[in-house]
Design goal:
Length: about 350
């Protein structure tokens, strides 16, 4: 990894390269360097999983275009672009990344004095996270979406995910389908849910925007000194999408005080206080730039994206755990069950959460 890191335009001598973070998809390392004056600087080195991201060069073109655009916006707002946006470190020959031994690598400047959370610490933190993602969408409102490559085709196309799931059930490559019939039936009964947002988009009732498409809490860096949201990270899936996608994925991942693989399902439920905090922050962060229909469909986004993630986890479980990194045999099944439990709880609380939406839509 040191040999690979040295291919990038880093400052100083490399002291160490160590694994960093716990992402499901890419392999991530922290690279520590010492400059000639004795000061230290760190970088993030990542191996992009090209089994998932088939065209990493196009992904990095998206990445750099968006980061450069955001840096200009942050400067206009009087912020610090080196901390409030990601900085891509080019290779020594000026490229966005490099192929080494059949793998593609990129490097980013490490943003110091930050932390990210896998599980929400409380409504105030979740509100700050919501404002960050709402503002992220607002800052990109004038970005030309047609310049972006679709890094994972049909990423949040839930009807396509549903069809892929049906194929996985039929093929049953892992031989596990008989173990998860209740989960399969739960998804089959909600086929209409999977169509709902795409139908509204196709009918012209929802606008297509530049969206992050992976807005979980852990993709926000928080300033350790102020505990304010600082920087949106993990831009690999930034593509054209719907506001409801970004809202929904945050609710799925953050409006619950349990991990994504919690095995005690009695602990898995939508926390209304967290949901309300996120609604308030997301609408404020977007500077009220959402249409009335977009706001109305935010809870639908939460339900659709949570169900979609359950579909994806169960599909991978049936296919033999090929997509997500797993730590034990039923890891994807445990992840599936938390998502489906959240969907069921949203349905039970539907009247309450729609009233929360109405409260902040005025």
């Amino acid at each position: 990894m040191k040999r690979i890191a040295e291919l990038f335009n880093i400052e100083g001598e490399i002291l160490e390269v160590v694994p960093h973070g716990g992402g499901y998809i890419n392999d991530t390392y922290a690279v520590s360097c010492q400059r000639e004056d004795g000061s230290k600087v760190r970088y993030i080195l990542q191996r992009i999983n090209h089994d998932i991201f088939k065209n990493p060069e196009a992904l990095m073109d998206n990445f750099v275009m968006v980061c450069d655009y955001l840096k200009n916006i942050v400067k206009e707002q009087g912020g610090d672009p080196s901390r409030e946006t990601l900085t891509v470190i080019n290779t020594r020959d000026g490229q966005n990344g490099v192929w080494v031994d059949g793998n593609y690598y990129r490097m980013l400047l490490f943003i110091e004095d930050t932390v990210c959370y896998d599980i929400c610490q409380g409504p105030e933190d979740f509100y700050k996270c919501a404002k960050a993602f709402g503002n992220f969408q607002f800052m990109l409102k004038d970005f030309p979406a047609d310049k972006l490559t679709e890094t994972i085709p049909n990423f949040h196309n839930t009807p396509v995910r549903f069809q892929t799931f049906l194929k996985a059930v039929e093929e049953n490559k892992s031989g596990r389908a008989h173990l998860v019939q209740d989960e399969i039936n739960f998804i089959l009964e909600r086929k209409a849910v999977t169509d709902s947002l795409i139908d509204l988009l196709n009918a012209g009732e929802l606008p297509l925007k530049v969206t992050h498409n992976d807005t979980k809490l852990s993709n926000i860096l928080m300033d350790v000194k102020t505990n304010d949201s600082l920087c949106v990270i993990d831009l690999d899936t930034i593509m054209p999408g719907l506001a409801a996608y970004d809202f929904g994925d945050s609710i799925r991942a953050g409006a619950c005080y349990t991990a994504e693989d919690e095995t005690d399902l009695s602990k898995v439920y939508l926390v209304k206080e967290l949901f309300e905090a996120y609604v308030k922050g997301f609408i404020e962060g977007s500077k009220k730039g959402l249409t009335a229909k977009e706001i109305e469909t935010l809870p639908i986004g939460a339900k659709v994206i949570t169900l979609e993630q359950g579909i994806r986890f169960l599909t991978d479980y049936l296919d033999g755990d090929l997509y997500y990194k797993t730590q034990y045999a039923d890891h994807n099944l445990d992840r599936t069950r938390t998502q489906l439990k959240l969907v069921a709880d949203m349905e039970d609380k539907w009247e309450e959460i729609t009233k929360i939406i109405e409260k902040y839509s005025v």
